[in-house]
Amino acid sequence: xxxxxxxxxxxxxxxxxxxxxxxxxxxxxxxxxxxxxxxxxxxxxxxxxxxxxxxxxxxxxxxxxxxxxxxxxxxxxxxxxxxxxxxxxxxxxxxxxxxxxxxxxxxxxxxxxxxxxxxxxxxxxxxxxxxxxxxxxxxxxxxxxxxxxxxxxxxxxxxxxxxxxxxxxxxxxxxxxxxxxxxxxxxxxxxxxxxxxxxxxxxxxxxxxxxxxxxxxxxxxxxxxxxxxxxxxxxxxxxxxxxxxxxxxxxxxxxxxxxxxxxxxxxxxxxxxxxxxxxxxxxxxxxxxxxxxxxxxxxxxxxxxxxxxxxxxxxxxxxxxxxxxxxxxxxxxxxxxxxxxxxxxxxxxxxxxxxxxxxxxxxxxxxxxxxxxxxxxxxxxxxxxxxxxxxxxxxxxxxxxxxxxxxxxxxxxxxxxxxxxxxxxxxxxxxxxxxxxxxxxxxxxxxxxxxxxxxxxxxxxxxxxxxxxxxxxxxxxxxxxxxxxxxxxxxxxxxxxxxxxxxxxxxxxxxxxxxxxxxxxxxxxxxxxxxxxxxxxxxxxxxxxxxxxxxxxxxxxxxxxxxxxxxxxxxxxxxxxxxxxxxxxxxxxxxxxxxxxxxxxxxxxxxxxxxxxxxxxxxxxxxxxxxxxxxxxxxxxxxxxxxxxxxxxxxxxxxxxxxxxxxxxxxxxxxxxxxxxxxxxxxxxxxxxxxxxxxxxxxxxxxxxxxxxxxxxxxxxxxxxxxxxxxxxxxxxxxxxxxxxxxxxxxxxxxxxxxxxxxxxxxxxxxxxxxxxxxxxxxxxxxxxxxxxxxxxxxxxxxxxxxxxxxxxxxxxxxxxxxxxxxxxxxxxxxxxxxxxxxxxxxxxxxxxxxxxxxxxxxxxxxxxxxxxxxxxxxxxxxxxxxxxxxxxxxxxxxxxxxxxxxxxxxxxxxxxxxxxxxxxxxxxxxxxxxxxxxxxxxxxxxxxxxxxxxxxxxxxxxxxxxxxxxxxxxxxxxxxxxxxxxxxxxxxxxxxxxxxxxxxxxxxxxxxxxxxxxxxxxxxxxxxxxxxxxxxxxxxxxxxxxxxxxxxxxxxxxxxxxxxxxxxxxxxxxxxxxxxxxxxxxxxxxxxxxxxxxxxxxxxxxxxxxxxxxxxxxxxxxxxxxxxxxxxxxxxxxxxxxxxxxxxxxxxxxxxxxxxxxxxxxxxxxxxxxxxxxxxxxxxxxxxxxxxxxxxxxxxxxxxxxxxxxxxxxxxxxxxxxxxxxxxxxxxxxxxxxxxxxxxxxxxxxxxxxxxxxxxxxxxxxxxxxxxxxxxxxxxxxxxxxxxxxxxxxxxxxxxxxxxxxxxxxxxxxxxxxxxxxxxxxxxxxxxxxxxxxxxxxxxxxxxxxxxxxxxxxxxxxxxxxxxxxxxxxxxxxxxxxxxxxxxxxxxxxxxxxxxxxxxxxxxxxxxxxxxxxxxxxxxxxxxxxxxxxxxxxxxxxxxxxxxxxxxxxxxxxxxxxxxxxxxxxxxxxxxxxxxxxxxxxxxxxxxxxxxxxxxxxxxxxxxxxxxxxxxxxxxxxxxxxxxxxxxxxxxxxxxxxxxxxxxxxxxxxxxxxxxxxxxxxxxxxxxxxxxxxxxxxxxxxxxxxxxxxxxxxxxxxxxxxxxxxxxxxxxxxxxxxxxxxxxxxxxxxxxxxxxxxxxxxxxxxxxxxxxxxxxxxxxxxxxxxxxxxxxxxxxxxxxxxxxxxxxxxxxxxxxxxxxxxxxxxxxxxxxxxxxxxxxxxxxxxxxxxxxxxxxxxxxxxxxxxxxxxxxxxxxxxxxxxxxxxxxxxxxxxxxxxxxxxxxxxxxxxxxxxxxxxxxxxxxxxxxxxxxxxxxxxxxxxxxxxxxxxxxxxxxxxxxxxxxxxxxxxxxxxxxxxxxxxxxxxxxxx
Length: 1871
What we know:
Mean pLDDT: 81
Number of strands: 35
Helix content: 40-55%
Distance between the termini: 65 Å
Strand order of the largest sheet: 11-12-10-13-14-9-15
């Protein structure tokens, strides 16, 4: 069964993923929702065995229905007989319970199993046992309690997880048999009463109560019987007045004639039944959506199912939030961080969005802000979630801010029509909200926000190119000040122009220069200070002298040779070595002259150089164009004219593909050509003269298709006008004929023929007389009766017919005569409509019905259809043509539609003025498609044409046309090419580079053209010139070598290049040099560094170091001080505010901003409430939907069902409640398709919602917001499993199967819905609780708020290792010892820390049940802990498996691993669902539920998990988690922050360390870090103060709200005390700021530790202060704690002397008994009459009261009421007349029954309620529950007590003692 369910889920997803149309996909998925097999409990309910049901026996259906529904009473259950194991040790939670059930199931027909019923009768003569408030079962006491507990847990879990109540008491069963299994009896329930199980404490019995929801028939059975057997199961109608016996009788009548079928009227079973899938199946019926144009017209549905969301974008995540969102647009009603604000912004921009919300990132507050902002903009919102908790947490947030009045909860048990109408009535009567403050909050907030942003921008805006911010400069200067560098600085050349690497290079250079100076000493005192190069050795000196001599001789010879060469070339005599280069250049040019021939050198083309270049340009252009088309088109393309093709393609979308859209357009032309003859012929057959369009063609085919189905009618009848105006009237006439024929057939054996001729009035009078006389024996004396009787019986075939049968037949005869008269009156209509086929009452009605049905099919085809059909000459031919044409037309429309829409989207309509494709004449389409076909054929010449887009094809065509133009230009240029280039000209095959080089030479050497034409051997001259040049270079190099060796600077003439030096001066200087160098090498090295330093702006440092004025030890410090001071000066000049910053003033701005930001949030709440109130309909003169709704409100009973109410009053309801909060099921159940639509749909916990479940909601919305987390649980199959009966399925398999089920979140991601991730993690009060999830599943992207406590403080993650525990693998699949340990921890928590909420999470359902059993046992043994289990209504205690824990959070979470080594010590690596695919998602959910502490209980550690034997990400993540839990260490790859940006923080930390403080910097693990955290020396593990600087974290905040309010707010929430340190203040006043900081640390030490104090329970006591929202004539109020609750009066039990020793209690005289009773009532009144019996028994010292004692006391009660001032109030309570009632504290009473809720006097509760409301000017119902129960002496509030107090609140409202205003109960105003 489980595999079948999962298989169906997989099919559902595949159907949505399959190809096909939207409707087809949905229909496939929809059909899979319908289960009409016998697996469905609604078609066959298993009995006995392990079926999770409770079978009720020996009870009456009428009694059960009346007690539960019509009387509204609670009932209990009675076991069939005593348990064979009687024990007070609470064995009911052992496995024996199952064994007992098995034994009972196997012998369920044993007469000894169930006690025989008690046939004692009550005062009404009914069997008492069947009309009491106890339901008898077949189970033993043990088995019954275990089974009820199972049902209670499963029903509650399903209600919380799926938003559906599935617990029903099924009354009455249909026993039926299927045709496939005719011998097998099946049992289907008939009437299903929605019920709930209640109990006060673990020790109390369960009570069954009707939920108040509608009682419905078995809808699945109704559909099944109709489909399979053609039977119609009767509807229930008004369930409040239902006669269940009559209903069962109607079912019996339905199955009459089926011998094997029967109705088991009094059979009843309590079990889990669900209509959920059936409701959704019905909701997705395409017929229901026709009113809105069908499902295909719903764009959102198309996007999710088929089209996706192409092109959807979101706001850039790195955008400046404050620049993006103006204060007036900040409609946040609860705190909103930057990631949430971007989501709200995108939503308000109308964008569809997928919000990834990791655990604890504020999904609910984001949704609350989205909903409130939508309400403020008058939008209608549908908020959908399967989990009740997801809806309730958002509702609580909205209630808290006053916006909850705009929300309508229709989730599960909150969908009651009476409470719904009451809530709508209260909303309708709301007053106009008022606001006292009128300050310009928006303007002030904007101003403060700009100031704060300006400071952050100013402090962290870098100075370029230095890339230093003021904050960094402050840090460095603070550091230098600490090192002693304050005033000493030297000027630096342009330091602010240095990039960071340039500054570091200068610092390195300065360090190296210092090192050199420390080697050679002070430079100015060195021996070589006057000579630039004295570092040569003696042998090098001799070599230099020889070089000088050689250079002189060679210079002289070179001069002679160069002079000769220059004269040959007509050049001047050389005066410098470099002059010989002129000869080289001239000779080289002659050698390089091209070999074009003398004629080319002398060509006139070269007289104008542009002519030659033009020839080459034309050649290159032609060649390039030819190359360009080589891969674009073939050679034939150059011969084709492309103008028309290009013009055709330009009109199309550039993205069209030739092989796709263009080919499709060509194909359309072909199809249209083939269809044209048929269309023409069809138009002729139908006499159509208008030009054919696609619409008209489709209409003609539709008409022609009906040509062969024309009924056999006369033409006049066929074209009769009556068919246009009265099809319904004609059908009614045919129906009348049919009824008359049936009546005649039925009466043929009853009446004589003469009866038909009798006057109808006479018959009616006779019938009335007979009926009114009844069966009275004196009727025969009535003459009128005798006449009537004689008249009628004379007409009867059998005069002795029974009276009832006679009256029934007479009624039929009277009706038949009326029908006959009607037929006669409408004879003309029948004749007109049917012609000769009309035979009045003898007409063939089946034929006439067929004609009517056929006529109805013509209605959509418009007017004139019948005439056309009548005039068709060849009907068969017309039909054949229509069948041939329709597919082609459909294909043409299908092909053209997307292309047409794409062209319209870019405003390129190919059809002229007509924009609707179906209206375009076919001739126009044909002509246009012909052009497209021609273009498609011609583009085939392009390479890879099928793959080209239109844009690419146009580019290719442009290239081809360009090539054609270039070739034409080349043909013209060829006339000048041949004479100019001689043999090098080869037409288009010429080498352009060769021609270009020729032209270049001609241009550069125009004066050498004639010489080149005559010269024969230029190479000889070049050789001589090169030799002279080489010699000159050699000489210059040798001279330069000498000069360079000496670094001589004495002569200006020789200071430049030696080749340019005058030759005489050079020779003279060489002869005069002498050199005696020592230490030259070190000197040269120093000079190089010094010169480099000077060039880099350090001239003053070089001078100071050279002279010795600047010490080398201080040089680097002075350099940094000079540099940073210069940068700071530039920063101050850029913004003078840096110089006069005042931290105190800035703190005031921050404080003001914080207040204004909160005020803005309050204003947003007011704006939202105001906008909602403006939409509320006014009551005066209400009409339409509002009038209907008000009429329903005024009714006392008989209200419309919610679905019908929505159908009739949708606009009014949505005006009152623009926000609907529902589960997917309630959407399908209560919102009729096409009736209500919403501007916005928000789906929460979307990863757990199956796509098919969400489609109904999506279809009703215009905008989609999907909220969830893909890394958390997929849709759970717990729902399907709980409704099944196979409990043997191994949970280990569940996870693997569930992982394959896709969610709506996954589907939307696949469809391209843009997504954004919420990043701020709020839930965990210690970072260890989320560290593994953030590291393993979210890549460290979360902003995790660090805790002010380390693991030493006892918060965060704890590990309990129990190596002795064993996993019972082959049997129970539980870990019993671990379960017991967890249960004991739960009990300890309840005893020691009840103020903290608690949840237990397990890896399997079996371990969950084992822990629950152990907890149940301990709860019964320790009833004092029940207060903990009853408190925390918003976050109650739970035990859940990881499959259904998503969405829950608690202060403390216990995790039971369960899996481990078995009894033999064997360890498998299977950890259930965690080990399967998707297991990591389950683990992620499991380990991220705790807010304060998470404790892991396990028999194994991470070391027991062998990585070599495991598979799946989940197991590896589990190993990491267990390691972290055990060791507290996690290898996080958190990037360290750049120390360059944290110099200031390090300096502050150093200053504090110097004062002896222990501290840490950068405290945190991801996203959010505390700059400096000071440890508390007296309390290890606690940080006493967090210091926040205005550094990196301050800079990186996305908004002023994040930076200056939320950051500090969330840190304080996690236990931090925060001190804001302004860097500018510290820089200007370091000592003063340090003292202030130290004072703040010392103050923080004196503050109490939040963890050290016992947190108080969250409660509200009275007296209270009042917070209100002014709404005109009245106010909405809330309570806040003000003073302690005054002590209530103590309950005093009666105790006085009685004659117990003389008389037995039942022997006391009536008068004396009355006296005793009055004394009791006087002392204890009001007191329950049963408690009077207890008190009398106690006074007599008796342990029990038998029937005689009870009777005696009851008689005494009757006597005292009749003779004294004692009266009976509230049905069963005795009180003194006129007595004043007060609440009495029952804490110390002796009688245990006094504390039972049913024994509490309603008048006493009413008095307590009224007193509290009066003293406090109002109170909320939930507050009254707590306060009243405490006044009555209850430390905890059980569900029964809570219900009792709430019932009394409602009673006081109904009696006008109190009135409900919003959520507040106040005293009603007196008239």
